[in-house]
């Protein structure tokens, strides 16, 4: 194991925090505004980037191959930069799940802010010891013969799951497909749900 658990927070995070406290102190920014910005990053900017990558891989087989061969380069093709990325694909035979056992290394540019549970010691240890049980708690029940593979993110390499495309989504556009992809599906603790049938 590398010593990535002592990884300092990226300088950008420190800089943002310093600016934030200064702006709040000077009365130029309220904590509500800060919360809104954080929420945007958590819900939209990050996960939306990842969702675009997934949807593009679903509709373009050549891109999917490039993504699985060299995640960093393929993600950069879509104008999303950042971490060294390895993308692992869920299939009927294999379900992938990402954890960072020593801290909470996480691909911010494609997934936004890590969820609180991802950083928790319980998830980090139990995902390794009893992944099937943890998945069931997230509502993912897999057939007994599906192999579960766990990927341990580090300061050097971040992992992202390419979830399975849901059945019944053949008629959807790439943008509509992207709207179905959740952050949790790209961590591997959820599956992408088929769209609700039109009323």
Descriptive report:
The chain has 199 residues and is mostly helical. It contains 10 helices and 4 strands. A two-stranded parallel sheet has the order 1-4. It has a two-stranded parallel sheet with strand order 2-3. It is globular. The termini are far apart. The model is unreliable at 1-8 (pLDDT under 50).
What would a concise description of this structure say?
With 199 residues, this protein is mainly alpha-helical. 48% of the residues lie in helices and 11% in strands. The protein has helices at residues 11-25, 31-59, 61-69, 71-77, 108-111, 116-119, 121-129, 131-137, 174-180, 183-187; strands at 85-89, 94-99, 147-152, 158-162.
Features:
two-stranded parallel ribbon; globular; two-stranded parallel sheet; single chain; disordered N terminus; 199 residues; mainly alpha
How many strand segments?
4
CA-CA gap between termini: 52 Å
Strand content: 5-15%
**Which structural class fits the helix and strand makeup?**
mainly alpha
- What is the helix content? 40-55%
Per DSSP, the total helix count is 10
**Could you report the average pLDDT, rounded to the nearest whole number?**
84
What is the string of helix and strand elements? HHHHEEHHHHEEHH
**Biggest pleated sheet:** 2 strands, parallel
C-alpha-based Rg, rounded:
18 Å
Strand order of the largest sheet: 1-4
Poorly predicted ranges: 1-8
Overall form: globular
């Amino acid at each position: 194991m590398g010593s990535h658990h002592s990884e300092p927070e990226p300088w950008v995070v420190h800089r943002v925090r310093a600016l934030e406290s200064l702006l709040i102190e000077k009365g130029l920014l309220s904590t509500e505004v800060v919360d809104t910005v954080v929420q945007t990053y958590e819900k939209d900017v990050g996960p939306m980037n990842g969702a675009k990558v997934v949807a593009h891989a679903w509709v373009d087989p050549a891109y999917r191959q490039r993504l699985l061969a060299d995640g960093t380069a393929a993600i950069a093709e879509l104008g999303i930069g950042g971490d060294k990325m390895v993308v692992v694909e869920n299939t009927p035979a294999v379900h992938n799940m990402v954890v960072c056992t020593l801290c909470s290394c996480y691909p911010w540019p494609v997934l936004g802010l890590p969820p609180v549970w991802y950083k928790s010691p319980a998830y980090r240890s139990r995902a390794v010891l009893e992944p099937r049980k943890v998945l069931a708690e997230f509502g993912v029940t897999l057939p007994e013969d599906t192999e579960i593979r766990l990927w341990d993110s580090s300061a050097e390499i971040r992992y992202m799951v390419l979830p399975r495309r849901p059945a019944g989504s053949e008629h959807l556009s790439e943008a509509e497909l992207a709207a179905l992809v959740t952050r949790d599906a790209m961590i591997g603790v959820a599956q992408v749900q088929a769209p609700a049938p039109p009323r």
